[in-house]
Amino acid sequence: MAQKGVLLDQDQLCCSVCLDLLKEPVAIPCGHSYCRSCIEDCWDQDVLKGVYSCPQCRETFTPRPNLRKNNMLAEVVEKLKKTGLQAAPPPALCYAGPGDVVCDVCTGTRKQKALMSCLTCLASYCETHLQPHYEFPALKKHKLVKATAQLQEKICSHHDKLLEVYCRTDQQCICLLCVMDEHKGHDTVSAAAERNEKQRQLGMSQQKVQQRFQEREKELKELRQAVKSFKRSAQAAVEDSDQIFTELIRSIERRSSEVKELIRSQEKAQVSQAEGLLEQLKQEIAELRKRSTELEQLSHTEDHIHFLQVHRVLLPPAGDWSTLQSLAFFVQLKEEVLITCCDGSNKYPSIPMLSYGMNCTFYSECQYRFTLIQ
Questions:
Q1: Is this prediction's pTM over 0.70?
Q2: Contacts of 80 (CB under 8 A, 6+ apart)
Q3: Where is the signal peptide (predicted)?
Q4: What is the mean pLDDT of the chain?
Q5: Is the model's pLDDT at 347 over the cut of 60?
Q6: 76, 123, 223, 300: which has the fewest C-beta neighbours closer than 10 Å?
Q7: Is-cis flag, bond preceding 98, omega within 30?
Q8: Are 339 and 347 in contact (CB under 8 A)?
C-alpha cells in the first residue's frame, strides 16, 4: 500500500515539459511547477512577445516572473531518489518525424508529435500537454482542430488576430479588426457561414460531376459494345469474302481447264484436217509439176498433129477448187485466233488472245460476283 502511494507521488513529481522527475523544481505564479531549465527554455522563446505563459493552463504573466526554488518539492524528490525506487516510467513517447507537426511545449532536441492544434492559443500540443485543455474550464472553451503546421496562415498579418470573418467583396479571410478598418462597409460574413455556403455549392458541383461521370461511363460502355459489334461484323465480312473468292478462284480454274481442253480438242481436229489438206496439196503439186513438164515439152514439138492431139489431154481440168479454199481458210487462222466461249459457241474475232471471253457467260458471272462482294 505504501509502495502504491510512492508511485502516486512519482506521477505528481514529473515535469509536464520533459516528462521526467523534477530537476531543481521551481513554482510559477499560477501554482504549477517545472524544472528550472524547462520553464526557462519555454520563456526564452517568448522574449520577443514580452508575454510569458504557463505551458499547462496558458495563464499569461507580464513582466517575466522571477523563478524561485520550490524547497518542499525539492526535498520530496531527493527523498524519492534516496529510497532507491525508480520513478514510474513516463507514457510511451511518440516523437515527431519528418512531415509531422511538433508539440510547441516540448523541449529538448527531440519533440513529441502534436495531436491537436488550438486556434485560440495558436499552438500545437502532444497528448501529454493537451490534457489541460480537457481539464481546466477556461481551456475547454478553446477550439481544437487536428494538428496543423499552418497555424500562422490562420493569423491576420496586420493585426495578429485569428481569421474569423470572410469578406465576400475582396474574396479573402480577415479578422474582426479588419472589418472595422480597411474592409469597413464590405459584404462580410462569418467564416463558418461562408463555409456552409461554399459547402452547398460544392455539393451541387459534386452532383453535376457525378452525373457527368455516369453519362460518360454509359457512353463508354455503349462505344465499347459498338466496337465489339463492328469487329464481329468485319470478321464475318472477311470470312464471307474469303469464301466467295475461294469459290470464284475454283470456278475460274475449273473453267480455265475446260476452255484449255476445248481449245486443244479443236486444235487437234483442225490440225488433223490441215494435215489431210497438206497431203492433197502435195499430190496436186506433184501432178501439176508433171503436167508442167509435159506441157513444156509439148510446146517445143514441131508435129502439129501430135500437138493438137495431146494438147487437150494435158490441160488441167476445170475441176474442184475446194483444196485451195481450205488453204485460204488456214491462212486466215494465222492472223486470227479461234475463240471458244463458255457457252460452246465458236467465234473468230480480230482481237488479241488476251481479250478473249469478254462477252461470254462466264465473264458475266464473275463480274456479278465481284459486284456482290463490293
A1: no
A2: 6, 9, 10, 13, 21, 87
A3: none
A4: 77
A5: no
A6: 300
A7: no
A8: yes
Tell me how many degrees the CA angle 249-252-256 measures, rounded to the nearest 5.
Answer: 140
What confidence score (pLDDT) does residue 352 get?
39
> What would you measure as the largest C-alpha separation in the chain, in angstroms?
193
Residue-wise burial string across 256-272, b where 16 or more C-beta atoms lie within 10 A, e elsewhere? eeebeeeeeeeeeeeee
Give the DSSP letter string of 180-219.
HTTTTTS-EEEHHHHHHHHHHHHHHHHHHHHHHHHHHHHH
Which residue matches cell numbers 495578429?
160
Position of cell 500437138? 307
Strand ranges (E), 63-199: 68-69, 116-118, 123-125, 144-146, 165-167, 172-174, 188-190
Q: Pairing mode, if any, of strands 165-167 and 172-174? A: antiparallel
Query: Across-strand partners of 144?
Result: 118
Whether the CB-CB separation of 124 and 48 falls below 8 Å is answered with: no
- Given the C-alpha cell 478553446, which residue does it identify? 142
Provide the percentage of residues in the chain whose pLDDT is more than 70. 76
Q: Quote the cell numbers at residue 198.
A: 461554399
